[in-house]
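histidine kinase, Leptospira vanthielii. Tokens?
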Amino acid sequence: MIDEFLAILIASGLLFVGYYYHNAYRRERKLRLILFRKNLSNSEEIERTIREKEKQYQDIYDTANSIIIRWSPDFKIHSINPYAEEFFQINKEVAEGKDVVLDLFQIPFEKSNEVKSQLWNIFHRPEQNIRQEYDVFIGENDKRTVTWSNRILKNEFGYPYEVLSIGNDITNRKIAEENLMKSYERILDLYNNAPCGYHSLDKYNTIVSINDTELDWLGYGREEIVGNLKFSDLLTESSQDKYKLITDSFPNENLTGVELEFIRKDKSTFFVSLNSTATYDKKGNFVISKSTVFDITDRKLAEDKLNEYSQKIQLQNTRLQKAVEAAIKANRSKSVFFSKITHELRTPLHAVIGFSQILEKDPNLPNHLKGYVNSLYENGVHLLGMINDILDLSKIEAGKMTESKERFSLVQLWDTLFSMFSYRFSEKSISFELLNPTVIESCYYEADLQKIRQILVNLLGNALKFTNQGSVSLEIQIQRTPEHSFDTVKFIVKDSGIGIPNDQLHSIFEAFQQTEQGSSYKEGTGLGLSICHQLVEFLGGSIYVKSTIGEGSEFWFEIPLTRLEIIPGELVQKSKIGPIHTKELGGTTKLEESEEEFVQTFLNTSAPELKREILQLIRIQNFGQLIGVLNTIKTEDKGKNILEQKVKNKKYKFLIDLVQSSNPLE
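Tokens:
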């Protein structure tokens, strides 16, 4: 019974244990199923999250505005993003598997090991992100500077299998930084090497900056002054008081031109001029003052000497003023004396010259006296010329020169000069001509013709005097000014004479001055060029000269001439240009000699008043009026017809000979 009970009890225990484990198994199985389902759901969520992250990464990779390169430790390219494709101008498919240094960065082979060594160093550094900066090439010549952020990707064993490099092109920034640095260096160089001193003071008047120029003046090193000395430490006691008074009186004002005395390190002093500007913050609080300093020591010394000299000069001026007044008074007296004495001398000289000409033509004059009479005539003419020069100079110096205007043409002026000089040049076998004659045609002006003619007569007379062979020319140039009522006319006289030394050109326009060649070559007063100079200035112009010894001289002057707006018909008739070269004169023929006899007979048989009028009109070259006078003579005298024809054809040599063979008193 007991055994059965024990068997039943054991069987019940086993049944209970079996039931318990069965229920436990079912519970565990159910729990495992629940956990499996939960893990499956989490796995899907994780996978979905990973896919989203991968998509986000790919979007960032594809759209990033930076260069992204994935490459292996053996420098082979795994992939590049679109921006890198565009930057390096290479397709992703072409780039994959290529060498990142040689093929993508296009680093020259001889420098590739240096770059690869730089890249290989990133594998030996503990940082996650490693920054580097180096140059890459796009094509042959386009070098770009790129800054890189490198991240090493490792496998589960800790070995690197890939490098992710993100680059940004900083070429423009580098260029800007370099330019900025150069500008800063230039500014710093200008600041330190400026010809003036610069310094800045803080609110305690301590020097916080100073340039090299001011340091050199003071003899200090920068570390001795900056942050250690106040501005007042650089000033003498009197300048300290002056500076304090100014800054206390005008605390917020800029300082300009304040003169102070600085003390150098060696205790010597020098004077400066200070300009200072204060700067303030937005609240009106003082920040710093900037000052410019100029060394005025030399100026101060010069001012002291100038004051000393000024006193001496003032004393000298007082003495000179009295001397000048006396000289002016004496000069006026001299001019008046010359004017009166030359007037008195010219009258008897005209008589001497006239009577000497009469004596020379007297058939009863003994032959042994003809030379004396000719010498008397030539010296009389020479003396009259000297007296006329002195009289002209006296008028100019006395201020009695007046301007007398008349209407004329440049053709008339040339014809007059040609008639006066052509025969004299021909006698010396020197050619005389007008250059560019077409320039002066139809040029009519109103001016002081007598003074212009006098200037040219003096210049041509000098050319004749100092030229023994070759040529003399006159050229007239006209600079028209339509906006004004006048033209600038330039007269150029050029000769092939003896020339003037360069060291004497500056004095030839002074009164009573002659060059060494001129004074030894010919006699004269030395007044001709001085008169020319003063007449040109009186007419509002300027006169110049250039010369070469042995080759000749060139004188030219420019004067303004008022244009004629309305030109009289008779002036046009008188302005037909005649000969322009002495070669057009030809020689005197026997026919002309016989023609001169007919003309002389006509003049001698005419009324004395008519003869004097005809000769006078020939002398002054008024051929237009002379034609009118001849037309009024109602006779068919052969001499009258010959004279009329010679005048119309402007036979200067014939007319000059005619006047010279006549009595000068007629």
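Residues 519-523, 587-591 have pLDDT under 50 and may be disordered.
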